[in-house]
Structure formats: structure tokens, C-alpha cells
Amino acid sequence: MEPLWLAAAHFSGLDPDSVQIDRMARYRRWLTTEAREAGGIGPGEVDRIERRHLGDSILFASQFSAEPGDVWDLGSGVGLPGIPLAICIPETRFVLIDRSWRRVGLLRRALRILDLENCQVEHGEIEQLEGEVDTVVSRASLPPEVLGPLLAPLLAPRGMAVVGGSWRERPDHLGWETVEIPPDLLDHTVWLLIMRRA
Asked: Per-residue pLDDT tens for 81-116?
């Protein structure tokens, strides 16, 4: 039986090779050891890494209409969803952005361990970011009603944002499209919120 994260990758139209599968295994080990010890992952999350963190993160790619050129992961924390996506989409450039210097240090360490060349880490506040990008991803960083107005000026024309969270029921927010991923994939329902710029 394939790992749940790999099922999520196939669902999203991705076909990880042996190098990517090995990187994901190393990242999983890092999450359950160094990241957990540093407080980036709660002790109760270790048993849920596959479905709650890795698989959930990769499902963001199911909403990409094409392979993005650049992706910003806002409030990246310990690299979710940015690092799993970067592992599975090596031709895309990912920028992992977090406001905490401690988490920025953890992210830089993870990228060195994984030898992940299509990623970089930046320290910054979402409210102070400037520029435009093709795609933004964010997982449980800010409530959608707060995040939406901050994202709108960051998206390039025809750009999109994909946002996830730990919702127990369907999230419906003005200005967002709600996509439901069936519960039989990861043993729980996943909702993603999508914002598109014309």
C-alpha cells in the first residue's frame, strides 16, 4: 500500500520519482525529530504526519491549473505546505516566508538537509510583503477574512492563492472559492480555499 502522501500526489497529477520519494522520507524524519524537538510540530502530531501534514500539503497542487513559475509559501512554519510541494514540483521556485527568526532558522536547516535547490527562505511579515507572484500558498497562517485583503495585491495577473486550514466544517468566505477533497483520500475531508486574480 502506497503512503498517503504519495496517493495525494497522484490525485494531484504528480508522479514523484525515487529521488523525490527519498527526499520526502528525509523530510518526514526531520519533522518527527528536529522539528518536533524545536516545537515546530506538536508531540501529538507525530502519528499524523502522513495524512495531516504531508498529504494535506501536497493536495494544494491539485488546484494548480499549470505548473507555477514561482510560489510564495506565507507563514511557512516548518515548511508546510511549501517543502512537500517543492519536493514534488522541482521545476518551480518556492520562497518560504515566515515572521519568526527561529522558524526561518529551522527552515534553512531543513533545506540544507534535503539539498532542495528550488527553495529559498525569507524572513518577513505578510503585511509588509511587496511585489507580485504567480501563486501563493498558505496553511493555517491567518483567518481567510484577514488573509484575503493581504493577498490580493501580491497576486500577479491571472495569479492564484490556495489556502488550507484545520477546519472541522466546510469554510465559506466571501471572495474565496471552496474546494472539497473527498475524505476517502486521506481519511478525513480536506477543504481548500482558492482566490484568483483576473
From this structure: 999 999 999 999 999 999 999 999 999 999 999 999
Count of beta carbons in the 10 Å neighbourhood of residue 134: 20
3-state secondary structure 9-26: HHHCCCCCCHHHHHHHHH
Which residues lie below 8 Å from residue 29, measured CB to CB, with a gap of 6+? none
Three-class DSSP category at 180: strand
Q: Report domain extents, the chain.
A: 4-196
This prediction's pTM: 0.95
Q: Provide φ and ψ at 99, rounded to 5°.
A: -85, -15
CATH superfamily of 4-196: Vaccinia Virus protein VP39 (3.40.50.150)
DSSP three-state, residue 72: strand
Residues of the chain with pLDDT under 50: none
DSSP 8-class letter at 64? -
